[in-house]
Amino acid sequence: MSFPKFSELKEIDITKIDDQIIKAKKELLFLRIQKANFSRFSPHLLTHTKHQLSQLLTLRRSLYAKKFNVQRLKKKIKKKN
Predict the structure, then answer these.
(1) In a domain, 46, yes or no
(2) pLDDT class for 65, splitting at 50, 70, 90?
(3) pLDDT, tens digit (0-9, with 9 covering 90-100), for 5-24
(4) CATH number of the CATH domain containing 71
(5) Closest among 67, 45, 64 to 56, alpha carbons compared
(6) CA–CA separation, 48 vs 56, rounded Å?
(7) Would you list the DSSP string of 4-63?
(8) For residue 27, what are the domain limits?
(9) Is residue 27 part of a domain?
(10) What is the total count of domains within the chain?
(11) Residue 6 lies inside a defined structural domain of this protein
């Protein structure tokens, strides 16, 4: 099973990204509990979930950065005028 591509996530809006981040964090917690209890555990699921979480956090950060940079540029333009 291959890792999901970052380009697949780019079409998602911020609210759905936040929901998916919460789901990924819950799944990581569940997987860590399974690992600690020596129950049925697949190590690759832990790796995939961490990878997905990092992609989602990166995407969320870039979307927020774009949003705030646009606001800063608008303020600079208003100050010049």
Answers:
(1) yes
(2) confident
(3) 777 777 788 889 999 999 99
(4) 1.10.287
(5) 64
(6) 12
(7) PPGGGTTT--HHHHHHHHHHHHHHHHHHHHHHHTT-S--HHHHHHHHHHHHHHHHHHHHH
(8) 13-80
(9) yes
(10) 1
(11) no
C-alpha angle 19/22/25, rounded to 5°? Answer: 150
pLDDT of residue 1: 59
The set of residues, in sequence order, having a beta carbon less than 8 Å from that of 25 and lying 6+ positions away, is: 53
In a domain, 8, yes or no: no
CB-based contact 19:58 (threshold 8 Å) = no
Answer positive or negative: Cα dihedral of 2, 10, 52, 19.
negative
Residue 68: the pLDDT is: 77
Q: Is the pLDDT reported for residue 72 higher than 80?
A: no
> String of b and e for 22-50 (b: at least 16 CB within 10 Å)?
eebeebbeebeeeeeeeeeeeeeebebbe
Query: Which tokens in the block code for residue 65?
Result: 């950065």
